[in-house]
Hints:
This protein is of the alpha+beta class. It has a domain at about 15-49. It contains two helices and two strands; from the N terminus they run αβαβ. It has a two-stranded parallel sheet. α2 (about 25-35) links the parallel β1 (about 20-25) and β2 (about 40-45). The chain is elongated. This is Zinc-binding dehydrogenase. It comes from Gordonia prachuapensis.
Amino acid sequence: MFAELIRLIESGQVRPAIDRTYPLADVPAAIDYMETAHPQAKLVIDLNI
């Protein structure tokens, strides 16, 4: 099932809905945004250091 989802994303047939991306150090800001701004899509926490 995940292989099919990956194929659809890679082919551009499905696009994940991402509102904003935050670095790990800004998790408090991400939580604040989530609670006060009512994001229209998902928030992403970037774990790359």
